[in-house]
Amino acid sequence: MFRTGRTFLAATAVVLALTATGCNSKSSGGDAAPAAPSAAGSSVAPSSPAAEVAPAALLKLVGEKTSAAKSAKVEAVTELPTGKTSMKGAISWDHGLQGELTGNAGGAMADTLAKAGGDGTFTARYLTDAMYINMGEAMAGQLGGAHWIKYGYADLAKLMGPAGDSLKQQLQSADPVSSVRALIASGKVAKAGSESVNGTQATKYAGDLSAADLAQATTQGLTKEQADGLQQQFTAAGITTEHIELWVTGDNLLVKKVEQLQTKAGAITSTATYTDYGTSVAATAPSEGDTVDFAKLLQGAQSAS
Q1: What pLDDT sits at residue 163?
Q2: For residue 51, what are the domain limits?
């Protein structure tokens, strides 16, 4: 088996999947509006100011407009107890998460990459049924020359148990405003001031989701057995609440989102900013000759053990 090992590759997949769902948030239902919104910074006249509308009603408009945009450029940072990972690129949520993000790993992930000769940079490509990760020439040298590792979402679900089932559902159906819908459903959102985000004035909203709210937001599309298993994993990890902060422009588009979970191992914080709504996004699978399937790597390791 290659020196970095299957445990590291599995952990890498989980981190990058979590970062991606941080861009797109949890699936919690709700329909997108049929009309496409204006991109941020466009000349279309702004909708009614946030101050004139109750927070929940305003966020409903935000959900509709942002969902209907179908794509955006994004910068995301996920901070785990073991380190920080940052990513940027363009994503589409028209048919599940699709797009390509480049990034830098920190903490334990960066340390392991360094041992393999890497510099901590990577590229993650997301399609409807799998994500592909390229961690550079050093890792390719340990994979028979293949630069890309394919992680099928169904394989990740098996690897992670009930949490993997939820993650698979999120990757295949989520969009950036799922957190918006979760806050609306909880009835616990409040206006929290205003500030500039990337040069654009935005109104801030914040709220806290309880364990019951989290269950509703993360178990959509799961069977009862899967949902019960996910709840058990939440309990074991010490997850009881989630704090969400959202920044919304005058034309009702989401421009920044922060989500924070408290766990027994420490805080998990995901921050994402959005620009250029409606940007063109094209993502294709790497060539088969330059790709190795993580599921086959696992099978080979298990056969050798």
Answers
A1: 67
A2: 5-304
